[in-house]
Design a protein that fits this description.
Elements: E1 2-11, E2 14-20, E3 25-29, H1 36-48, E4 67-75, E5 80-88, E6 94-97, E7 100-101, E8 114-117, H2 123-126, H3 129-143, H4 145-166, H5 171-177, H6 179-214, E9 221-225, H7 233-246, H8 248-254, E10 266-270, E11 273-274, H9 275-278, H10 281-303, E12 308-312, H11 320-329, E13 335-339, E14 348-354, E15 357-360
Helix pairs in contact: 3-4, 4-6, 6-7, 6-10
C-alpha cells in the first residue's frame, strides 16, 4: 500500500497544498510549529475517519474559513483508491471513497491501513488503561468492520445500563429491567474479548522480537491481557452474565458497570518489571514503539498488504543505536517521518515544511 498524493484545503495551517509522495522513506523536515504534525494527522485521518488530536472536528478547519478538505490517493496491490473527507462548520462531515459517499465510518475501515506513532503514544504505556484499550480497538477496527460495529454497540448498551443504575428508581425495579441490557452487554462484550485475546496472541511474538531488536537483545518484553482468557464464546457469555449479577449491588452503589471489556487492560513488563510504574521514559518510549512496529507486522499478515508507517517526531528522543535500528526497520513499508533535522539517508526523499507549505527538498 502506497500513498501517492495528498491534497489539503483549509486544513489546520494549510490553505492549499498538493504533494506527491514516494514509496520508501518520506522525511518531513522543518522547524517546530510549521505543519509537519498537521500533515501526518491528515494522512492518518483517512485511515480511521477521525483525529487523534482534535476533541471537536471543526477545530481542524483553518481559522477564518468555513470548510476544510482532505483528498488522499493511495495505490494498493491491485487497485487505486481515492479518499475524500470534507468538513464544514455548518454541516456534518462527509466521507467519499472513489467519489461515492459512505453513510457510516465503518465503511471506511480497511480501505487504507496505517500505523501511527507520536510522542503522545507514550500514554499507551504510562497512563490509563483506556489508552491501551484504544490501541487495541483502533487496530482491530482497521481490519474488522464487525469489531468496529461491536464496539459501537457495546458502548451504547453500556451507556443505557449505567443510566439505569444511576436512575432514581428503587433497587428492585432496576433489577427487574436490567436483564435486557445485561444480555446485550454479554453478547457484544464476549465477542470483543475474543477479538482482543486473538489480537494479543498475534501481537506478542512480534512485539517481543521487535523490542529485542531495538534494544540489542538487552530487554525482554512481556504482554498479557488482563481480561478473561476463555476462548469459548458460550462459556464467556455465561461468565459475563454471572459476573454482572454478582456485581449488581456494587454497580448500584457506584452508579456504573464494574465488569466487562471496558474495564480491561494490557499488562506490560520488561525484564519482569512493571514498565508503567518503574520503567524509565526511554524504556516506555521503546516499548510503545515496539508495539506499533509489531502492529505493522500483524496488519500485514492479516491483510496481505503492508500498511503505511507514520512516525511523528520520534527520532530525536532515541539514542543513536535505537535510531539506527528503527530506520533499518522502516524499509519494510512506505514510511513518513517528521523532525527538525535528519542525517543524509540513502533512498530517502526529503520534504521541507514551512508555515503551512510543503515542497520536495532533495
Amino acid at each position: 500500500m502506497i500513498v501517492e498524493k495528498l491534497q489539503l484545503q483549509n486544513f489546520r495551517n494549510y490553505s492549499h497544498t498538493d504533494v506527491k509522495f514516494f514509496s520508501g522513506l518520506n522525511i518531513l523536515q522543518g522547524s517546530n510549529v510549521q505543519g509537519k504534525t498537521n500533515l501526518l494527522e491528515a494522512i492518518y485521518f483517512c485511515s480511521i475517519g477521525k483525529s487523534l488530536r482534535a476533541s471537536r472536528e471543526k477545530e481542524i478547519i483553518k481559522f477564518g474559513e468555513n470548510f476544510a478538505k482532505i483528498n488522499l490517493e493511495i495505490r494498493k496491490k491491485v487497485k487505486k483508491t481515492a479518499i475524500l473527507l470534507y468538513f464544514s462548520k455548518n454541516t456534518k462531515k462527509t466521507v467519499k471513497i472513489n467519489n461515492i459517499p459512505i453513510q457510516r465510518i465503518s465503511e471506511l475501515m480497511g480501505e487504507f491501513n496505517a500505523v501511527y506513532f507520536s510522542p503522545d503514544e507514550l500514554k499507551m504505556i504510562k497512563e490509563k488503561p483506556e489508552d491501551r484499550r484504544r490501541f487495541m480497538d483502533i487496530h482491530i477496527s482497521q481490519t474488522s468492520k464487525q469489531y468496529f460495529y461491536l464496539i459501537s454497540r457495546y458502548e451504547k448498551i453500556l451507556l443505557n445500563r449505567n443510566k439505569l443504575l444511576k436512575s432514581p428508581a428503587d433497587k428492585n425495579s432496576i433489577k427487574e429491567t436490567i436483564d435486557i441490557w445485561d444480555t446485550g452487554l454479554a453478547e457484544s462484550g464476549s465477542k470483543i474479548i475474543l477479538f482482543r485475546n486473538d489480537f494479543l496472541k498475534n501481537l506478542k511474538p512480534y512485539a517481543e522480537k521487535v523490542h529485542q531488536y531495538l534494544t540489542s537483545n538487552k530487554e525482554n518484553l512481556m504482554l498479557e491481557y488482563s481480561g478473561e482468557k476463555e476462548n469459548d464464546l458460550d462459556v464467556l457469555k455465561k461468565k459475563f452474565l454471572s459476573a454482572l449479577k454478582q456485581n449488581f449491588d456494587k454497580d448500584i452503589k457506584m452508579g456504573y458497570t464494574n465488569y466487562g471489556p471496558h474495564r480491561d487492560d494490557i499488562k506490560v513488563s520488561v525484564n519482569d518489571i512493571d514498565i508503567r510504574s518503574y520503567g524509565s521514559q526511554g524504556q516506555q518510549r521503546t516499548v510503545a514503539l515496539s508495539l506499533k512496529l509489531a502492529e505493522l507486522e500483524i496488519m500485514y499478515q492479516e491483510t496481505n498488504d503492508m500498511p503505511i508507517l507514520i512516525l511523528d517526531d520520534v527520532l530525536s528522543e532515541l539514542d543513536s543505536k535505537r535510531r539506527e535500528r528503527l530506520l533499518k526497520f522502516c524499509v519494510k513499508a512506505q514510511t513518513f517521518i517528521s523532525g527538525t533535522d535528519f542525517p543524509e539517508l540513502k533512498n530517502a526523499h526529503y520534504y521541507k515544511v514551512e508555515n503551512g507549505t510543503i515542497k520536495l527538498d532533495k
